[in-house]
Every structure is written in C-alpha cells, then in structure tokens.
Amino acid sequence: MRIGLIGAGAVADYHIAAALELPNASISAVCDIDAVVAQRAAAAAGGASSFTDYRDMIDSGTVDAVIVNTPHSFHLPMVTDAARAGLHVLVEKPMATTLDDCDAMIAACDTAGVALTVGHIQHFMPDKVAAKEHIDSGELGDVVMVRDFRSTDYRPGTRSGWFFSPTVAGGGALINIGGHCIDRSLWFGGGRAERVLASTVNRFSSEVETDGTIALRLANGIGASINVISDPPLKADSLFIVCERGVVVADPRSGTLVQVDGRSRVLHERHPDDIQHAFTAQLADFLDVINGGRPTVPLSHARHVVEVVLESYRSAAEGVARTVGAAPVVSAGAR
Length: 335
Description:
InterPro entries: Gfo/Idh/MocA-like_OxRdtase_N (IPR000683), Gfo/Idh/MocA_oxidrdct_glycsds (IPR050463), GFO_IDH_MocA-like_dom (IPR055170), NAD(P)-bd_dom_sf (IPR036291). The chain has helices at residues 12-21, 35-44, 54-59, 75-84, 99-112, 126-136, 166-169, 173-189, 274-290, 299-318, and strands at 2-6, 26-31, 49-51, 65-68, 88-92, 116-119, 143-152, 193-201, 211-218, 223-230, 237-243, 246-251, 255-260, 263-268, 322-323. The chain is an alpha/beta fold. A nine-stranded mixed beta sheet has the order 14-13-12-11-7-10-9-8-15, covered by helices on one side. It has a six-stranded parallel beta sheet with strand order 3-2-1-4-5-6, sandwiched between helices.
C-alpha cells in the first residue's frame, strides 16, 4: 500500500516509522506547504516523492492512500478530494471541527467506496490497551466512574500558531488535548454522552481556551470528569477507571496499575517505544480496514467525540448543562 502523508509536522515521524516497520506499507510521497520540511520527511521515509500542494500529490499516481496530518479545519477538503480520487484515508483526530464536515467526509468516502478511519491514538496506546483488556476480563466488575486529567501547554509560542486560531483549530485545549480525554472517557465508560457541563478559561491573552473542565453523563448512567490544565508545575496524563471491585490507572508516563482491596499490581510497565508501538498498530488497523476489516475506532465514535466537544463549548459559553444529540446514522459502506 503506497501511502501519501499530507502534513509533515507534529507526529509525522511516528507515521513514517510505522510504515517503515510494516511489510505491506510504505510512505511513497510526502506533502507539506514548507518544501524543506516535506523533503526532510520524504528522505526519512526512504526517498519518497515530495510535494507542496496535496492536490498535486493526489494527482501524481504515486499513492493508493493518504494520511491527513494537518490543521483541523483543513481535513474536509483533503479527505473529500482524496476520496474522489479513489484513495483510502486515515485522518488525524479530531475528525473535523463541525458535524457537517464529519458527515460530508463519511459520505464522500462511502460514495467512492474507499476506507476512512480516524486517528484516535489512545485506542492503541499500550497503557490503555492493557487497562481495557483487564477491565474486559471481568475481574473488577463493571465500570462505574471515569476521571481523566491531562496537563498541556497553551502559552503562545509553545506550539504552531494555527493552534491559537479559533477558525483553523476549531478551538483550543479542549478540542485538541481534551479530544483525547473525551475519546478515552467515552471508550472506557462504554456509552455515548447524553449530558455535558463545561467551563473554559482563556489565559496568556490567548484567542482560544487554554484550560477547561468537562463533566459528562453517559447514557448508561456512568459519570466522567475531564480536566485539561495548561502549564501546571506538575505534568500529568492520568486516566482513572473506577470499577465495582477495583481501580485502574493508565498513564503513558508511568504505565498501568490496578488496585484491589488495598493491593496494587502492574498491568503494563512503561516502555520508551510505547508511542511508536501505538502508531504502528494504528496504521496496521487502517490497512486491515482497507482490506475489509472492522475499524478499532468506529466512525460513529469519532463523530461523537466532535459532537461532545462542540456541546462542551456551547455549555461553557452559556453557563448551563447541554443535552447531547441523538446517535447519527453512519453508513456501513464507510465502515
């Protein structure tokens, strides 16, 4: 499978390394608006072609699929253009910045008969996989509560400028970092959100929110709390899953622990290759979907993450809890 990488910043190196590791995939082309960045990534991929316009790459005949690794609001045209060219698509999270964009992407890939998956990397992180497998074993009983806390840094100058554009990014810390938290809280909570109460703070003279908190009520009755804090003195990325008979904590910085009746044990020890392992597993999942398999992350889930983010922003603006909409109908043809 010849894969074109659109956007060579941020996590591009992980995507490239994943393709180099898998025997049935290669990065055959790289596109970035910065020619030097595109050429560097193309060289790292083993001599791939480089482009500065994704449309030229799509039309080049050098790719069978694309990974869209660009600012959030750019996803729609890139995904739909690729689909119309008959190319399979893996798009980074968040899927889009509006539900209409999500639906248009799904429809375009469905009509073209190509695979579409969304890069929610949390589902492939070894610390989260270990936690999910243990919970699914039944030893701890049902999940009854989820608590998620992540630190980040949204001081201007700490990341690319587009992250601070409400139009390009669709928001700030909640849609970006909080998108991971919403994703994994819904995943471990085992249900769709039906109620959301959120608050946000804009610090550092930022146009987008730098900090935020979200309280979710899932349709199955489980409560989930999410906190994203910018530039704290202590860094954190901790997911607590409270079950009937024990608590699991998953953290990529320290691994995965479970505690039952005062005794704890390790489910997964942190390894320096954990993040790369996740990206490789994600790409393998994409290739499986291309071959007719079911995605690890359903499109309905990826769309719902965007829906929850948008309702969180509305809740924060209005100062009241919001009801999350009904489940969408997602075409089976688009997987």
